[in-house]
Amino acid sequence: MNMLSDINFAFRTLVKNPKFTALTVFVMTTGLTLCIYMYSFIQATLMAPLPFDAGDKIRKVDSIYNGMEYNGPSVRIHDFEDLKKRVQSYDVFDAYKEGTVNISTSDRAVRYTGHYVKASFFEISEAKPLLGRLLTDQDREPGAEPVVLIGEAIWKSLFAADQNVLGKKLRVNSIQKTVVGVMPASYRFPDSGQIWLPFTTSRKGIARADGEYVAVYGVLKTGVTDEQANSELKTIMAELEQTYPKLNSNKSAQVRTIQAALMGNDTPAIAFSMELSVGFILLLACINVGNLLLSRAFEKGKEIAIRTALGAPRGRLISQMMWESTLICFISGILAILFAGLWLENTNKNLLSIFPFEPPFWWNVALSESSIIAAVVIICVTALVTGLLPAYKATGGDFNSALRDGTRGAQSKSAGRLSKIIVISEVVLSCALLLLSTGMVYSVDQQNKFDYGAQVEGYLTARIGLPEIEYKSNEKRLQYYQSIRTTLQQEPGVEAVSFTRTLPGQNARFQNISIDGVDYGKKAQYPSSNSVTVAHNYFETMEINLLEGRIFDPRDKLDSPLTAVVTQNFVKKHFKESEVIGKRFKFIGTDKGWYTIIGVVNDVLHGLPMSNNIEKPTAFVSLQQAPLRFMTLTIKASQDPVALRATLARITLSVERDAPAYNIKTLRAFITERNAGMNFVSELFIIFSAASMVLAFSGIYGVMSNTIIQKIQEIGIRRALGADNEDVFKHFIKQGLKQLAIGLVIGVPMGIALVTMMEKASLTQGSMMLYIAVPTFISLVILLAVLYPVHRALKLEPSTALRYE
Amino acid sequence: MSTLIKLSNLKKVFSTDEVETHALSDINLEIKKGEYLSISGPSGCGKSTLLSLLGLLDTCSGGSYILNGHEAADINTKQRAAIRNKEIGFIFQSFNLISELTVAENVELPLTYRKDLTKTQRSELVKLALEKVDMGHRTKHYPSQLSGGQQQRVAVARAISGNPSIILADEPTGNLDSKNAELVMALLDKLHVEGATICMVTHDPRGAKRAERIIEIFDGRIVSDSAVSQVKPEEAVA
C-alpha cells in the first residue's frame, strides 16, 4: 500500500513538473539508447556464436609475417601440411582455398568467387544442398570426374533455376565440369562463396618456395583453450622457422575465432573505445539526472523536514524519493529500447552499404534476448545510481533548522561541496569523452582526405584474371596486357591505361627482403617491404612523382637484369637516406634474383591510411619482368570514369573470352569502400561527440546554474555588503574556473591517454587543435553557465535576492 | 546632530500581474547622525521594506530619499553598491552568514570589496570587529559550528567592520533566545554609545524601547514617531 502511494506520489510530482521530467527523460534516454545500441551491435557482430553445433569450437588459423597479421589464405600449403601432422589440439584441422572462378557459356563469361574445399568444410558448417549432393573427398581423388557445386545465384542466372540441372556441364576455368548440386543462397560459410570445387592443392612435386597459400580452419577438441592451441601453434611454427630459416623467417601463426578473423584485430580496440565512450555518455547522463534530482531534493528540504517531524523513517523517505528516479529511468528505458531497436533495425538493413564486404550470415543486428536483459540491468543500475545518492543526501540534512527558518544553513555547505564535485566530474568525463570521440572523427576525416601519394580521382579500375591453362607463358600474358592497353587507349574518353597488382589504398604483399652486402646473421632477421608489380607507364598514369633516377622503360625486359623503383620510405628505412641508385636487394622466399634500384618515387600508401601503413616502404617491380596472371587495370579517364564501364567490359571480353573484367569501379569508390568500416565507426563517434557535447553542455550548465540559483540568497548578502555586479561576476567566475581547472587537469590527460591508446592501435590520431579546442569548448560552457544565471540573479533587487528561496 | 537620512513622501508599490500592493505610502522621516531608532509595527506593515529602501537594497516607487546629501534616485548601481559597502552595515534576522566561509572570512567579506584596503588592514579591521563582539577566539570556525547567538554576533562584527555611517538591523534578535537576544541588544547599545547610528526594525517592544526613538508603522504609513521617554512604561514591557 505504502509502495503504491509512493509510486502515485512520484508520478504526480513528475506530471506536475513537465519541463523537469522532459529534460531528465531526454538526458537519460540519450545515454541509455547509445548504451543499448552499442551493446547490441557489438554482441551481434563480435560476440554472436556461429549457429552450428561446434560453432563455439570452430577456429581459423592465420599467419603472422613480420609482425603483420594476415587473414584469408595466408598459410603456405607446405606449412599447413606440416602443421596438420603435428597439431594435437583439434578434432578437425583442414584447409580450403579461395579464388575467382571464370564460368564461360557460349555467349558470355562471368567471374565468381569460388571455394576449393574438402568434405570437412561442409561437415563443420552443417551444409545442406538445395539440390543434388555436396562435394566429397572422393571428388578430390586423382582421376575423379571433374565436378562442381553451384550456388543458387548461378543456378538461377545460368540455368534459369532448372530442376534438372544436375549432371549438366559447365565450363569452369576453361574446363568442362559436371554440376552435382546446388547450394542455397543462405549458405555463406565462412563468407560469400558462389561456387564450390574440390580442393586438390598439394605440396607434392612443388618446391616450398612455390607453394600455394591456403586458408586453414579447425575444430578445437573439447577442453582445449585458445591459449593452449595458440601456444602449440607457435611452438610448431618456431620449429619450422628453424628448419626453413629463409622461407619461414619472422613467420608465425595464430588461432582465433572466425568472427575475430573476419573483423580484424583492430576491431576489439574499436569496440572497446566505443563501449568506453557510451559508458562515459551513460555516466554523464546519470550524473546529470542525479544532479537534477539532487537539486530538486534540496528544494524539497522543507517538505522532507515536515515528513521527518511527522515521524517518517529515513528509509521510507529514501524509498519515496527513489521512486522518482525509478520512474524516470523506467520511462527512459522503454523509450531507449524502442529507439535502439529501431536504430538497430535500420543498421541491419544498411549493413551492405556500411561494410566493404557482404555481412556474415550469422549477423543479425537487432535487439536480442541478451541485449534486452542487459538493457534491463543497465536501467535498474542507472535508476539506483541516479536516485540513491540524491535521496540519501537530501534526507540527511538539519531538519530542525529547515523547519525553524527555512534557511539552508549547514546543508548548503555540503550541497555546495557536492555541486563542485559534480561539476568537476562533468568536466573530467566531458573532456575525456570529447577528446576521444572527436579524435576518432578527426582521424577518419584525415584518412578520407589522406594523400595516397598517387592521384585517386578520375580513374576506373577492374580486376583481370587470366586463365591458368591458356596463359602459362610470360610472353602470352604480356601480349594480352599489351593488347588490352592498345585497344582501350583508342577509345574516346580514355587518357591512359596501365596495370598494377595493388592499387593505392589496397594492402600489398609485405615481404622479407635482403639488402646486398648486409649480413643478417644466423637468426636471419630480415627487413621487409611492400612489393607491388606495375606496368611501365604506371607512375605517369597515376601521377606518382619520380624523385631520383628513372622509372621503368623498354630496357626492363623479361630477359634483362631485374630492376625496381622504390619509395622514399624504402630509402629511409633500408639505406638511411644514402645514395641508392644502383644498389641491390632481393625478396626472401622467392627464386627471383637481385633487383637493382633504378629510381626513387614519392611514397604511395598501400592499405588503410593508418600510421603502420603510412610508414611502410614499397618496392615497385616491373610487370614486364614478372607478368602475373592477376592484375588490376587502371584507366585514367578524361571524362566521368563511370561512363567507361561498358567499354571496359566489352573490350576485355573481346580480347579474352575467359577473362572478363570484374570488380569494375572507380578508384575513389574502391577507396571509399575500403574506408567504409572506419567511416561507419566515425559516424557513430560523431553521434557520440554530439551526445557528449549536448550532455556536457546541459550537465555543466545545469549544475552550475543550479548552484548559482541556490546561491541567489548569497548573492543578495554579498550585494547588501557592498559587492557590485562586477564583484559578483568575478566571484562566481573564479569559483567556476577553479572547478574547470581541476576538471581539466584530470580530464585532459585522461582524454590524451585514451587517444594515445587508440593511436597505438592506429585507430585515432591526436591533434593539438583538438587538445586546445575541447578544453576551450568546455571553458566556454562553464563561462556561459556562470555568466547567464548570475546575470539573471543580478536582475533581482538585493532585497528580493535576500528573501529568495 | 546633522541629518544623515531624509525621506520625503517615499512610497513603495509591489506589482505582480494585475495586483498592486502599496507597501509604503507617504513616508517622511529624518534620521540624524548618532541616532538610535527602532521601527516597529505588526507583521506585513512595511518595516522591512522601509529598511531595504534605507539600505539601498531596493528602489522606491516615488518620493525622495536623501542619504548623506545624495539623492538615492540619482545614484547608479555601482555607486549604490559602494555606498552599501562603506556607509551601511546590515544585521539580518537570519544572520545571513555565508556557510562556506569561516567567521573571519565572513567578517572580512565587505572589506574585500574595497579597493583602498590592504590585506593587513583588512585583517586588522576584522580582528578589531570580532574582539568588539567577543568572538575573536572563533575566527576559523564555520557558521554551522556556532550557536545562533554567536552567529548573530559575527553578523554584527561584519556590519561594523568597515565603520559604516549607519547600522541597519532587521529583527536582529528574532531568531535568538532571550539570553542571546540580550547579548546582541547590549552589543548594539554599546555601539550606539560609541557613536554609531542605528536603525533597527523590530516588533519586540522590549527591544524597541532600548532605542532613543521609536517609529511605528501601520499599513505602510508612519503612525507614530516618538522619543523613548514618551513611550508609556506599560507599552514598553508588554
Quick recap:
The complex is a heterodimer of chains A (805) and B (238). Chain A contains 26 helices and 23 strands.
Describe this structure in words.
The complex is a heterodimer of chains A (805) and B (238). Among the domains of chain A are: 1-54 and 267-406, no CATH class; 92-222, no CATH class; 459-671, no CATH class. Chain A contains 26 helices and 23 strands. Chain A is an alpha+beta fold and 805 residues long. In chain A, the strands form three sheets. In chain A, strands 4-5-10-7-9-8 form a six-stranded mixed beta barrel. Chain A has a six-stranded mixed β-barrel with strand order 15-16-21-18-20-19. Mean pLDDT of chain A is 85; it is low at 404-411. The two termini of chain A are 34 Å apart. In chain A, a hairpin with a 2-residue loop joins β1 (58-65) and β2 (68-69). Chain B has 238 residues and is of the alpha/beta class. Chain B has one domain: Rossmann fold, CATH 3.40.50. Chain B contains eight helices and ten strands. In chain B, the strands form two sheets. Chain B has a six-stranded mixed sheet with strand order 6-7-8-3-9-10, with helices on both faces. A four-stranded antiparallel sheet of chain B has the order 2-1-4-5, with helices on one face. The two termini of chain B are 32 Å apart. The A-B interface holds A 404-405, 407-410, 412-413, 416, 713-714, 716-727, 797-800, 802 and B 49, 52, 55-59, 77-78, 81-82, 84-86, 88, 90, 92, 94, 96, 98-100, 109-110, 113-114, 142-144, 158, 162, 175.
